[in-house]
Every structure is written in C-alpha cells, then in structure tokens.
Amino acid sequence: MFRFHHRYGGVTFVDIKDGNVNRTVIKAWYSNIGYHALPTYINVANNALLRASLPAGSNPAEYGITAYNHPVELAEALPDITGWSIASVQFGLVLFLMTALAMVPATLSTLMVQENLNGAKRLHFVSGVTPARYWLTNLIWDMLIYIVPAVLIIIVLLIFGIEAFVSDQNVGTFILLLIVYG
C-alpha cells in the first residue's frame, strides 16, 4: 500500500456494449492526500473526451482545456476530506433528529388544542382539577411520551457509535440537550 503514495490518481476508460449501442464510461480516480488531485484528473478525463471527439485530420495537441486550481488547505482539526464528510453527515443527522423530535411535541400540542376546542379542559376545571394540577399532569405526560423516542435515539446512536454524540466527552451534554429540548 505504501509504495503507491507517489500516485495521486488516474483515469480509466471502460467500453460497455449495451445491445447495439457502445458506450464508454470514464472514471477519474484520485487520492485526497493531494489537494490538486481531484480537479487535475477530472481535467485529464475532460481533455481525453475533447481530443477523442475532434474531427479526423485535426491535431489533438492544438486542443485542450486548461484548469487553474487554487486549493484551500483544510484546518488542522480536519486534516483530510474524510473529516469534512463526517462533519457533513453528522450535520445531516442533527437536522433529521431535530425534525423527528419536533414531531413529538407537535402531536402532543394538538391534543391540548383539541381538549380546549371540544370543552374537555373546561370539564376538567369544573370537575375540581386545579389549573396547576392540570398543567403539571400534562407536563409529566408529555415528558413521559418524549422520553421514549429520546431514549431510543440515544440507544441507536450508541449502537452505531456516532462519536459526535456518544463519545465519553459528549454523551452527557447530548443527553442534557435532549432533556432540555423535550
């Protein structure tokens, strides 16, 4: 494996015969160790396509695409592209978690609105339930309903070992955020 570190990439051409139609699939391979590798090898593939489609009798050396590349160096905390991809996956996961956890209070709030509209809340108060007891009971019930998906989320994150949420440093903060959010 170590003997190939001097190569930053390559281009492969594969001819595929699909019935009577011949297609050529081009893949640009690159190593993310070199910041320049991806645009360079895509440019090589594009130049190959351009020169292959020239009319007969043309000089391929006269045609080409020139790419200028000024790569941005990544921060020391994320030394390679995998750091960025992990961060983007975790950001997407957070968005899905927020959406999923927003559904729980939304469904519970519709029940309280429905109670108010059909007069059940008034019936509770007429029956002798104090407002403090009514709201405390609703809070306890809502928290019990919320705890179930929150615990399931923590279990799933522990099973999959998503370090941003369940590492030794972050698990306490994440659980506290889930409780405060609920």
Automatic annotation (TrEMBL):
GO terms for molecular function: ABC-type transporter activity; ATP binding. Pfam families: ABC2_membrane_3 (PF12698). It is found in: Membrane. The keyword Protein transport does not apply. Keywords: ATP-binding, Membrane, Nucleotide-binding, Transmembrane, Transmembrane helix. InterPro entries: ABC2_TM. Residues 21-182 form the ABC-2 type transporter transmembrane domain. The keyword Transmembrane helix applies. It is a multi-pass membrane protein. The chain crosses the membrane at residues 91-113, 143-166. One of its GO terms (cellular component) is membrane. This is ATP-binding cassette sub-family A member 1.
